[in-house]
């Protein structure tokens, strides 16, 4: 428990964090990687270069300070981060290192304003928060290892199949090298994939949503090649997987993780909305729904650039053909001439509220969405405008969490 004095001091720093939070986290990562370059094996370097990781950490620190007297308010975020930490292999002994450099960054950025009282209060608060993370992650590591087919750390998987799904997305079917059983998972979860790229000094770990049903003798991930936008650094791992990794090669995987999961206790209609490669967890959810809840009405809405970029389309269409409770709708922003002549999409342009309402008969249901940040902002704001409650809006970010406001 934190002392009243500590809570009061931490609360007093909230306005400062609102202004200087990102500067503090940028300085934190500079200090951390300078002193402990081995931790670069755990972090997504592209997210660092784009500032996404720094912004996400600043938001988390700000939320912790704002709710320091009611830490249960940030428990969902703590669990979400803990899932990622477990999948990455974050260990308890790394928390004191983080705490040391976070306090050092606060001191460096705030200078004389970071008094001994403020630094002492943040040190106390960090110990409490770190203890919570360590406890939650310890349970996750134990549960991951002891579940049927489970394991701890990373396990070698062989690429049994490599299928090109679209111009930019490829699926990898992964089977355990030891030929043992594999853990089940909840639709919407992901695995971490660890690779060593030849000539690169660091290993790289990326999370990819599982895109097929649980209970198969394989895991499937469907990966977008991230090298088409000249304004964004190319994704080292995605390009490596697309261009160099072949069937028969080995990838190292952590056990499935993540809290963006389908609530199968809910029997109301469900709408699955995705943009681009954001359809991967939605396809997994669709498989689960038609298998375990065959009477539940499902609306599957997907937005893509055009047919050449639309992955897993035929798979979803076949599920809809077999299961009349499933309705599908495609939205293309830049349909090709072939798309238009074949009438292979339902809307040109962007997903918007009137179109969603034309497909979904009632606001009384659950909505899951995933995709690029602009897509997610549009969907979230549309659902809010329609009156969909917060508890019925479920979403997943690629990489560090952002803001949908």
Automatic annotation (TrEMBL):
Reactions mediated catalytically: 2 nitric oxide + NADPH + 2 O2 = 2 nitrate + NADP(+) + H(+); 2 nitric oxide + NADH + 2 O2 = 2 nitrate + NAD(+) + H(+)
Cofactor(s) it depends on: heme b; FAD
Binding-site residues for NADP(+), renumbered to this chain: 276-281
Segments forming domain Globin: 1-138
Pfam families in the cross-refs: FAD_binding_6, Globin, NAD_binding_1
Catalytic site positions: 95, 137
Keywords attached to this entry: Detoxification, FAD, Flavoprotein, Heme, Iron, Metal-binding, NAD, NADP, Oxidoreductase, Oxygen transport, Transport
Sites where the protein binds heme b: 85
UniProt site positions, description: Influences the redox potential of the prosthetic heme and FAD groups: 84, 396
UniProt site positions, description: Involved in heme-bound ligand stabilization and O-O bond activation: 29
Cross-referenced InterPro entries: Cbr1-like_FAD-bd_dom (IPR008333), FAD-bd_FR_type (IPR017927), FNR_nucleotide-bd (IPR039261), Globin (IPR000971), Globin-like_sf (IPR009050), Globin/Proto (IPR012292), Hmp (IPR023950), OxRdtase_FAD/NAD-bd (IPR001433)
FAD-binding FR-type domain residues: 152-263
Enzyme class, spelled out: oxidoreductase
Single GO term (MF): nitric oxide dioxygenase NAD(P)H activity
Cofactor remark from the record: Binds 1 heme b (iron(II)-protoporphyrin IX) group per subunit.
Enzyme nomenclature, EC number: 1.14.12.17
Keyword RNA-binding: no
UniProt: FAD binding residues: 190, 206-209, 397-400
Residue span of region Reductase: 149-405
HAMAP family in UniProt: Hmp (MF_01252)
Domain commentary: Consists of two distinct domains; an N-terminal heme-containing oxygen-binding domain and a C-terminal reductase domain with binding sites for FAD and NAD(P)H.
Family to which this protein belongs: In the C-terminal section; belongs to the flavoprotein pyridine nucleotide cytochrome reductase family.
Protein purpose: Is involved in NO detoxification in an aerobic process, termed nitric oxide dioxygenase (NOD) reaction that utilizes O(2) and NAD(P)H to convert NO to nitrate, which protects the bacterium from various noxious nitrogen compounds. Therefore, plays a central role in the inducible response to nitrosative stress.
Record's protein name: Flavohemoprotein
Organism name: Paenibacillus plantarum
Record gene name: hmpA
